[in-house]
Amino acid sequence: MSSRPKVFGAIQDLAREAPVEVRVQGDCMRPFFADGDRVLVSAARLYWPGDILVFRAPDGRLLAHRLLGYRPWRGGIALVTRGDACVVHDSPVPKAAVLGRIASVRPSLRGRAAAVLGFLRLVLRCLNGG
């Protein structure tokens, strides 16, 4: 799904009031979601590792990927995300680009711990120059 900045801002406003429905495209979040599935997205004040977020990518598409953690970026904080079926994490995601989290998925404690461990592996790999 593609979204222009004004349209995306309007959708963000709606998501702050009530869940909005978006259609999943692609297979990067299998087995949770398949291409064509419809999901409800709700905005939140804080997102936790393990949440599946919908955000606007730099090319305008809406992506649904798992939050691994946070990192400093351009004088602020960005989110670190990755699709479950992807081997590489996404470019930093500014909080302003987040539409919300998928309301129907509440990660278990185990799922949240797995996301944090994935983030720690990424940090260690970066620290070791790899």
Short overview:
By secondary structure, the chain is an alpha+beta fold.
Any chance you could write out the topology, listing elements then pairs?
Blueprint: H1 5-17, E1 20-23, E2 38-42, E3 52-56, E4 62-73, E5 76-82, E6 93-94, E7 98-102, H2 109-127
Give me the secondary-structure category. Answer: alpha+beta
Number of helices: 2
Sheet with most strands? 7 strands, antiparallel
Proportion in helices: 10-25%
Radius of gyration (Å): 14 Å
How far the N terminus sits from the C terminus, by CA atoms, comes to: 33 Å
Task: Based on Cα principal axes, name the global outline.
Answer: globular
Q: List SSEs in N-to-C order.
A: HEEEEEEEH
Unreliable runs = none
- The overall pLDDT average reads 86
Strand content: 25-35%
- Main sheet: strand order: 1-2-7-3-4-5-6
Number of strands: 7
Characterise the protein shown here.
The protein has 130 residues and is an alpha+beta fold. It has 2 helices and 7 strands. The protein has helices at residues 5-17, 109-127; strands at residues 20-23, 38-42, 52-56, 62-73, 76-82, 93-94, 98-102. A 7-stranded antiparallel beta sheet has the order 1-2-7-3-4-5-6. It is globular, with a radius of gyration of 14 Å. The model has no long low-confidence stretch (mean pLDDT 86).
Q: Which terms summarize this structure?
A:
about 25% helix; 2 helices; about 130 residues; single chain; globular
